[in-house]
Amino acid sequence: MSLPAEAVDALQAFQDLPGWEQRARLLMQWGERLPVLSEVEMCDTNRVHGCESQVWLVGELKDGHWLFRANSDARLIRGLVALLLARVNGLSAAELRQVDLADWFNQLGLARQLSQSRSNGLNAVLQRMRELAA
Amino acid sequence: MMILSPWRADFPAIAALHRQGQTYLDNAATTQKPQALLDALAHYYANGAANVHRAQHLPGAHATQAFEDSRRKAAQWLNAGDSGQIIFTHGATSALNLLAYGLEHLFNPGDEIVISALEHHANLLPWQQLAQRRELKLVILPLDADGVIDLDAARRLIGPRTRLLAVSQLSNVIGAWQPLPALLALAKAQNAFTVIDGAQGVVHGRHDVQTLGCDFYVFSSHKLYGPDGLGVLFGRHEALQQLRPWQFGGEMVLDANYHDARFRPAPLGFEAGTPPISSVIGLGASLDYLAGLDQHAVCAHESALHDYLLKGLAARNGIRLLGKPQVALASFTIEGVHNSDLAHLLTEQGIAVRAGHHCAMPLLKSLHLAGAIRVSLALYNDSEDLERFFEALDQALELLR
User: What residue in B sits closest to A73 (Cα-Cα)?
Assistant: First the structure.
């Protein structure tokens, strides 16, 4: 399965960053790139539970490919969510089921961020994506 | 001014964490352990483990002796004297659940249980669920602006329907001592049971259950430099007589038939099954260690360190403290900064603090906060730990602002 173009960009950007500051800055920059959700879309129905910061997720199917948009009130979580979207946007439902979140963030050099998943809830976001696509 | 801890080297994990680039400031969640505890655990397992209160053989006698010695030491730590008994449970949460189930038969629909707005989930949910089972009213004592239970409100809310008062001695979010003597007097005037959640309080200073005059006092071993999986419940004799067994099984029984049984009195009647023997023995070693320290020096150190923490926070812009912390910890939020972002960047810099709701969701909701950062101290922390935290905090804020 070849990676979406955005994912290739992310890999190039995040691999081999020298330190936590650069990583944090880049994460926040990726977070800024997230497409905006409207006020209406940031509602309870679209809220992903299991995150200590708030995350909202909407998804639509276009020609067999899933396109997700998301937002969070926390900036670093927004960056992590952007990296997740880069990996999954454009996938089919079947491909989505096969995404290995741990492996993806490991490749990005962000495995430690994922290990805090109880608080950042990225797993919950992926789970919600799969439910939407099911 | 540097504040050094003379006890730091007694806790080998502090040096190990330091080598991993970690500064541990999450002591209200759990504490590191003194060498004396590690030695006691190694000694017990290396010299012959055995079950307690059952066997006539020598290893069993040794284990039982050490186990019961710890019970005596826990009683001494609380100055229980002859006023009551120490029951070992599997944690402070277990102890509070034991009370909520073991006292259930005394409640009738419409009776009131009084807790406070700052309770940890462990001292909220067992009572909330008991109230639901028995159609009781759960009354919540409000706080004043400093995060202390409002006594004027308590005078109105503790009344003839009050059957039980359960409050924390020291808040795990706000770090403020609660006015226990006044609250206990109000409850006792109504002949209500009194339960103190001492999980945080027991770690700071020495407390005397006879002076307090509470029916039950609960604490957790692992927050008091002891092993985990162990809670301590002190109960006054008169109150324990009304407590019914909650969990049933081995060694809590006097006589068992297929269709009925009779149970032991406290403490064994409330310690069904094999207890956490090594943890109990380990707690004894931790208590011996703590009892050997100069208590005034420990208090003075903790107080100086807390002062240092508060001054450092006050020197930074936009920091809002939760309540008015008096000891041990401080929780705060920063204007315009999401606590999850701050926690993330502190973690990246090897600062181990806690972010979130601190198992007190209703309290955080009442303050209209999604979460807060909590820095919590122990006797082995020093001003360098706090300096590292402040440096990391400044770096994080520079990035986020």
Answer: B338
